[in-house]
Design goal:
CATH topology of one domain: Glycerol-3-phosphate (1)-acyltransferase
Distance between the termini: 47 Å
Strand order of the largest sheet: 1-7-6-2-5-3-4
Radius of gyration: 18 Å
CATH architecture of one domain: 3-Layer(aba) Sandwich
CATH class of one domain: Alpha Beta
Number of strands: 7
Shape: globular
Oligomer: single chain
Number of helices: 7
Order of helices and strands: HEEHEHEHEHEHEH
CATH superfamily of one domain: Glycerol-3-phosphate (1)-acyltransferase
Largest sheet: 7 strands, mixed
Structural class: alpha/beta
Amino acid sequence: MGNLGTDLEPVYATAKGFPLGSNATWRVGAALLIPLLKLISKEQWRGTENIPRTGPMIAISNHISYIDPLIFAHFLYGNGRAVRFLGKASLFRIPIVGWVLRHGEQVPVEREIKGSAAAALPHAIAFLKAGHCLGVYPEGTLTRDQNLWPMQAKTGLARLAVITKVPVIPCAQWGAATILAPYSKRPKLWPRTKVTVVAGKPLDFSPWYGKEEDLAAMVEASAYAMSAITQLLEEIRAESAPKEIFDPRASDLPRFGNYKKRKKPTWPA
């Protein structure tokens, strides 16, 4: 059951079932995909006690590979939550895949169209009002950092957290890029790869409540969220992240898509 309202005022059914938010599509998909993930990966999950089993929540994570959403969804599903993503619209145009995503109540977002983030926000809020778990990659795309450390985030997650005041659980994962390198479509299937996912304690966005229209405040809140993710990733990798965080806004690389194939457009003066 998808959106029961309109695009401007979306309404989603109250999260039910176990894992919470699952439906027939989720159960069939999990039965098919989880055994395949187990064939190519060795999961190592930590901090699972930090994931709320009931009520609305936002789970955030670093983004390093196209396979990340499957790994993140598996982690959350295995800990009692069937996650909703606001996904790249092009995925929904793929035969069969698009049907599965829609029936799994995922929402397509045209990321490269101006105003797409604002259009997606009502859907995110509606999912949370219905008690769902919403999955968010604050960076908005695969990290551009050459060593796959998190980069500076967009402000969408911060605005959503401040507006809804629901628990935000920072997560970090490592290993996905070994299975499927960034922007690659050729997975490494054997030997099995250790994939670690760690969930941290809920973040406190209260210092920024009421400041969702203050850009500087939202940039600060976004940095706070990404710092929490980076600290978890440092623990997994057992090394320190660089002091200078990659800033996609200051880069010549395109903001979305495979930057190895595309160049940032030069706008007329």
